[in-house]
Every structure is written in structure tokens, then in C-alpha cells.
């Protein structure tokens, strides 16, 4: 279990306790404290003293991708799971994901999510729409079909084979979402993945979450990521592309194709 951590003091204890309560108990959790200044690292260390399956690595602040990659370097298991330090894993999360991964010989899998709000916020209609969509991607065929729509495996519910991550080059900092970037590289290599049918994670929404505050997770960054991988895969070897009958989304794709050096005709 790879858990990057920075300044999540209100939530980290609940997150780590939810991992300790997993029905699948044969795991190690590597918590990388990426320069927290609110006592999060100390809370994680206190939890590790109560549960020997947890190890805490303290580092100077270097960013999310560096923290995840440090956790990957420290981990020893053949399977890697991700979770953020402000979310809550339901008790059977690892059990049902490991069972699906091994029984179906998947390269990766995720699971159903339920958004929960914090700090007096409300879950937005857009988030509920993503929740319904991603929770329905329960076959490899459906996940592969929609891979360029959005990130088809919820990042904090990800379970993936270490060998597949290593073959794809690990998590990268490209100025766009590192989870989506890795997933598209796995797909390009022929990886098979899906979400299990069960809700396995409560995904906490709050104003300080990095997906809300960092430009790396903006709509524009997601679009750059999609178009880059589209050019590297389905459009590779073609001189250009025709975007036919496009609405707002299609026109945005066309503009980004042009920005990235592609030739694009719109109709």
C-alpha cells in the first residue's frame, strides 16, 4: 500500500485505521510524509507504532509523484495498491481487489467509490456523475472502451502488479494527472483492468485536496494528457486527424491536437 501524505492531520488517522481494519491482512503500508507541517507525520508514526505493517518515511517536500515513487521504491510486495491519506478504505477493499486480480489474471483493478464531503461542503453533481460512470466500468471491455473519456480506475482505489508498473516506467511528473498518465501507458501496453463491483472506498472531497488546488488536475491538463497519449497510440503513424461533427469537447480536442503539433481538420 503506497500512501503519500502531506498536511492531512484532520483525516490521516481515519485513513490509516481503515487500512489496519482490512479483512486481507497480508500487506505492508508505506506512508511517505512529504514535508508535512501540521503534525501529519507524527500521527502516522504513532499509528505505525501500533501496527507493525506500517512504515513511515519522512522526506523534504518534493511533490506527490516523488512521494509515490519513493513509496514504490520502499515497497517489497509484487502487488502495489494506492490510497490517499484523506480517504477511507472499506474493510473488504484489498480482499475483493486481490481476488479479482488473481482469479481473472488482470494487470490492475480498481473498485467502486462513494464521494463523501468534508468541511461543510457538498458533493458536486459532476462528481456524482463521475461516481456513477466509473462504478459501472466492471468489465475489461468497458474500461478499455472508455479509457480516453476519463481515468477509468479511481486512483485511490488502484491495485496494480508491480511488474506492470515497472514495465510502463512508473509514475511520472508530466504536468498532468500522474494516475491517468500511468493508466494510459498500461493500456497502450495491452494491460487488462476493470473495477470490481463493490464500493471499496470513500473518496473525501474538501477544498484543500490537491485535485482541487493544483493545475496538474485541471481540465486543460487532463486534455493535454489525453491528446498526448492519443497521438502516441491510436493516431501514431497517421499524418493528421479529422474531427467530424464536433461539439465543444471535440473542438477542444482539435485545438489541443494542433497545439501538440498534429494536423487536424474540423467539420
* Main beta sheet strand tally, sense and closure: 5 strands, mixed
The total beta strand count reads 10
What is the helix tally?
11
- Percent of residues in helices comes to 40-55%
Strand order of the largest sheet: 4-7-6-8-5
> Which class of secondary structure composition applies to the elements?
alpha/beta
Residue-averaged pLDDT: 93
Tell me the Rg in angstroms: 19 Å
Share of residues in strands: 15-25%
Write a brief structural summary:
With 267 residues, the protein is of the alpha/beta class. It has helices at residues 12-20, 40-50, 64-74, 93-103, 125-135, 140-145, 162-168, 178-188, 210-213, 219-232, 248-259, and strands spanning 2-5, 29-34, 54-59, 79-81, 88-89, 108-117, 159-161, 193-205, 241-243, 264-266. The termini are far apart.
